[in-house]
Amino acid sequence: MLAVFLRFEHQLTRLAMLIAVVMLVISVTLSFYQVLTRFVFNAPSTWTEVASRAAMIWCVFMAAAATFRGGYMMAVEVVYKVVPARFLTLLEVLIVVCCLLVLGVLIHYGIQMTMRVSNQTMSGMNISMSWAYAAIPTGSSFAIVAVAARLLAQLSGREKVGPENSEITPEKALVEDGHLPKGGAQS
């Protein structure tokens, strides 16, 4: 069952990253077009700035899932260095609980904001403002799945505890390598 969930999460996170990349390309292209029309043709486009901003919002919130999955948004590396290796799993659980609380708040208030602005339109475009705000609960939902999958993979031993591709070495390894005295962390 865990393997099925992890495969599902992997595909969901890949989809989120694909959406984020597409939105980044759209945002950059529209920004270039805006500069071109404003400074080269001296006839600024009325809609590209708003559309570019909305695409960038979607890019950030969709990329958050992959960022959470890798542990990059949760990692404060000095904490991982100070905490003894036997407590790293407990630290990860605490971090996940905090992340889930924040993401839950983002979903709750993101849905409220999306509903609140549904009658407003983006300036220069005849599109509801709710399309831009929908990125908040959507990206946060993707991120919740990624955070849960990360913790489950760590608890099951499929992944190491701590951020991916980190320079963090657990305290025990530092002691064994001679970087710390046998008594533990340096003061």
Salient structural properties:
single chain, 187 residues, mainly alpha, 7 helices
Blueprint (SSEs and pairs):
Layout lengths: L1 H39 L7 H23 L6 H6 L5 H29 L13 H4 L1 H21 L15 H6 L11
Helix pairs in contact: 1-2, 1-6, 2-6, 4-6
Order of helices and strands: HHHHHHH
Structural class by SSE content: mainly alpha
Shape: elongated
| Distance linking N and C termini | 45 Å
Q: Calculate the mean pLDDT score and round it.
A: 86
Low confidence ranges: none
In percent, how much strand structure appears in the residues? under 5%
Q: What's the helix count?
A: 7
Radius of gyration: 21 Å
The tally of beta strands, per DSSP, is 0
What percent of residues adopt helix (DSSP H or I)? Answer: 55-70%
Largest sheet: none
Description:
With about 190 residues, this protein is an all-alpha fold. It is built from 7 helices and no strands. The chain has helices at about 1-40, 50-70, 75-80, 90-115, 130-135, 135-155, 170-175. Helix 1 (about 1-40) packs antiparallel against helix 6 (about 135-155), helix 2 (about 50-70) packs parallel to helix 6 and helix 4 (about 90-115) packs antiparallel against helix 6 (about 135-155). The longest helix has about 40 residues, at about 1-40. The protein starts with a helix and ends in an 11-residue tail after the last helix. The mean pLDDT is about 85.
